[in-house]
Amino acid sequence: MTAGAKPDAADRSPTFGGPDLDPADWEAVRAQGHRMLDDMINHLQGLREEPVWREPPAALRAGFREPLPAKGADLAAVYDRFAAEILPYSSGNTHPRFMGWVQGGGTVVGMLAEMLSATMNANLGGRDHMALEVEQQLVAWTRELFGFPAGASGLFVTGTSQANFMGLLIARTRVLGPSVRKAGIREAGERLTAYASAAVHGCVANALDIAGIGSDHLRRVAVDENQRIRLDALRIAIAADRAAGLRPFAVVGSAGTVDVGAIDDLAGLAAVARDEDLHFHIDGAFGALGMLSAALAPRLAGIEQADSIGFDWHKWGQVPYDAGFLLVRDGDLHRRTFSEDAAYLRHSQKGLAAGDWWPCDYGPDLSRSFRALKTWFTIKTYGTQALGEVIARTCDLAQGLGRRVAAEPELELLAPVQLNIVCFRFRGADPDTLNEEVVARLQTSGLAAPSLTKVGGKTAIRCAIVNHRTDTSDMDAVADGVLAIGRTVRAERGD
Questions:
Q1: C-alpha gyration radius of the chain
Q2: Sequence-ordered strand ranges (E) for 198-299
């Protein structure tokens, strides 16, 4: 069939056959849908019996280099290929022994909510429909969680990388005014500088790059022995930049650093921001949701003073990907940073184009999925108390692993266990390459999936406990696996 030609019945999937894309046989699709749903629930139920990760075979990879299909296949056949060739070879973050990166495990509730969202196929850019009320409910709940005022605004985004970028754009508008959106940084005649700890996530530097400020204008301030920003060093850096004719405009605090889970002195950073007239943004990718836990919330004191916070419901909140969020204290400033006066985006007094709150006025996306629904389902179904207990339990599990490491002569703890992240290594000659091999063998065995990072210049095995399914048996399995594989590798090398 040539490009652009109208397909006849022989070109269509046997499951479908009309002039539109609805099923020719609704009952057949219903039966197939029930099968798919049952299989996915069974998959989640049986995760613990499966390997954490399998390397995709070369033959399967090659099969996904096929030409663009002109003719459709039966839905059941397409699903069978998914079940055999895609599902078993996922990254593994739903599994209780996935600990390599800070990724949530998702829930069956979130899975079902995603199905409902896909059915609605709602575009949450704007206009007047009930999905926007759900997102506004989440904005209100988030304001309540973080102690923000009624005028604060919020928005679902892809993740904290985007939220941090938007937070710094808002900070840029705050210091240079809305005209910077048209005239640009060069016309403003200011050389802006931002500040964060040396342990800050790399997306903050990327955000300054994309915003046109330049990643070189991020000052990475020294940290203390617990990987928290040093406030004395921060004040010195700000003073030096002012003396050099630069204009400090923002400071970024970390609520859970990526390597070790350190929480900056947020109240101290808020005081510096007030004294220096800086926008105070918090990268709370996973740690900000510690506010859901009565045990952890006091450690986030000062977060309520932030000008903006970026975090992910899809990490400690267990919402399926993706569900990032940006919360902004000054809702008017937020809107001035992103709103557009386009004819096709004008609000009306009545009809579908009515409604006071259009998300496209608060971010770069006009086309937006209904991320709020799976988050609403998660919070309504489980409640914040249960979610907070899961968060606290992951930290308890991390503490337990830290104690196990400290008790094993062959293991070395490389950083204090502050939240849910444990960084350690197996002792031996050439420990960097030794621990790289240990992690690779753990992953390929399917037993567990930690990752690698650097702490104090040393290669560390990094276990981030985020999944609500993880328990003490999983922590024991990781420690036992590291010891067994480490001894094997050491023996092979003749150490």
A1: 25
A2: 218-221, 247-254, 279-283
Report the 10 Å Cβ neighbour count for 282.
33
Provide the H-helix boundaries in 97-197. 108-120, 130-146, 160-176, 180-188
Is the model's pTM score more than 0.90? Answer: yes
Q: Tens of pLDDT along 149-193?
A: 999 999 999 999 999 999 999 999 999 999 999 999 888 788 999
Same fold, 123-369 and 380-493: no
Q: Which residues pair with 458 in a beta bridge?
A: 455
Q: CATH assignment of 380-493, given 3.30.750.24, 2.30.110.20, 3.90.1150.10, 2.40.110.10? A: 3.90.1150.10
Q: Are strands 279-283 and 247-254 parallel, antiparallel or unpaired?
A: parallel
Q: CA distances (Å), 153 to each of 214, 291, 345, in order? A: 27, 18, 20
Query: Rounded distance, CA 28 to CA 237, Å?
Result: 67
Backbone φ and ψ for 157, nearest 5 degrees, come out as: -135, 180
Q: Which residues pair with 367 in a beta bridge?
A: none
Q: Which tokens go with 274?
A: 């007030």
Distances (CA, A) of 48 to 55, 92, 97, 252, 446: 18, 11, 8, 38, 11
User: Dihedrals φ, ψ of 143, to 5°?
Assistant: -55, -45
Instruction: Choose among 224, 218, 184: nearest CA to 203.
Output: 218
CB atoms within 10 A of CB 350: 7
Which tokens sit at 397?
Answer: 């599990």
User: Would you kindly state where each structural domain of the chain is located, as residue ranges?
Assistant: 12-90, 123-369, 380-493
> How many other β-carbons are positioned within 10 Å of the β-carbon of residue 378?
24
Q: Does domain 123-369 have CATH number 3.90.25.10?
A: no
Q: What is the mean pLDDT of residues 14-24?
A: 87
Identify the band that residue 350 occupies on the pLDDT scale cut at 50, 70 and 90. confident
Instruction: Specify the 3-state DSSP secondary structure of 204.
Output: helix
Query: What is the pLDDT confidence band of residue 3, given thresholds at 50, 70 and 90?
Result: very low
Maximal CA-CA distance, the chain:
79
- Three-class SS of residue 264? coil
Within 277-414, residue ranges assigned H as helices are: 331-338, 371-407
Do 32 and 75 form a contact (C-beta atoms < 8 A)?
yes
Strand-pair category, 458-464 with 421-426? antiparallel
End-to-end CA distance of the chain: 64
Torsion of CA 394, 395, 399, 402, to 10 degrees: 70
Contacts of 343 (CB under 8 A, 6+ apart): none
